[in-house]
Amino acid sequence: MTSATSLFSPVEADLALLTDNLKKLVGARHKILYAAAEHLFGAGGKRIRPAIVLLLARATLPDQGITSRHRRLAEITEMIHTASLVHDDVVDESATRRGVPTVHSLFDNRVAVLAGDFLFAQSSWYLANLDNLEVVKLLSRVIMDLAEGEIRQGLKHFDTTLSIEDYLEKSYYKTATLIANSAKAVGVLSEVSTATADNLYQFGRSLGLAYQVVDDILDFTGSSEVLGKPAGSDLRSGNLTAPALYAIEEVPYLKTLIEREFSEPEDFEQAIELIHASQGISRSRQLATDHVHHAIACLSELPPSDSRQALEDISEYVLRRLK
């Protein structure tokens, strides 16, 4: 299967520069935080979010090069994303992420929390220095949304009354808000029309939601080695995602297993079997497909270019992760 990073060829050199700049932006004043940042930015992540920002910058300004403000926006986007992951790993007590040790497992919780706070603060500083109030508002909203999503998830563990609409709203806060608002911010910096900027926001929103739904399907269908965490870990912790929510509509007994928090022997294994036997996974796949199709449609007003094609390919890649 094609890897995500192979789709970034129009901005491959830009992403290499981004990784170097991220380490410089953090600075070396605080040795332990710099060590944490070196670990994070050298961990070989896919860099999907900044790649989308850079590709959109090229797609909205096809006759110009990427501006320094677009580059800084891509760096800010990755800093915000990384900060949120550091905090998430502390909350979830995760020892590894995608097979790489987490900051709190390498150092300790105190350093991890401080590292996440430091990255949020750094991103806010560089955001303010873009001197564009609309972009500041868009990305500041993201930081608020990320916290909101984590709180909502924490308050809804084992809650079988959660609807698909509630799930998508939480998924927006946790995953799609950063892609959606950074995509719109690209449009603002490129001085596109209001309608085009809104289309870029909708592109990011739909792509982000599709990405999250696919992640949640893989939690049931992927191997622990591929996932970098035990399969079914979301369900076991009481985080109900699309496959489980759709299955509950079809198999009411699943609610009983979840509401008693898998307290009886073999409850969890039975719940997994019921979800696989239901239409939960196939309906979730269709939900992700619909969002990917909408994301691609939102790009239709951009002029044809290698960058626009790469954005369409990335959208389709999200679904290919399921194959």
Indicate the topology:
Blueprint: H1 12-26, H2 31-41, H3 48-60, H4 68-92, E1 96-97, E2 100-101, H5 103-106, H6 109-128, H7 133-155, H8 164-189, H9 194-221, H10 224-227, H11 233-236, H12 242-250, H13 253-259, H14 267-277, H15 280-297, H16 306-320
Antiparallel strand pairs: 1-2
The CATH topology annotation reads as Farnesyl Diphosphate Synthase
Count of beta strands: 2
For the record, give the distance between the C-alpha atoms at the N and C termini, rounded to a whole number. 8 Å
- The SSE string, one letter per element, is HHHHEEHHHHHHHHHHHH
Low-confidence stretches: none
Residues in β-strands, percent: under 5%
Biggest β-sheet strands, sense, barrel: 2 strands, antiparallel
Q: Outline, from the CA principal axes?
A: globular
Total helical elements: 16
- Assign the structural class, choosing from mainly alpha, mainly beta, alpha/beta, alpha+beta, or little secondary structure: mainly alpha
Mean pLDDT over the full residue set: 89
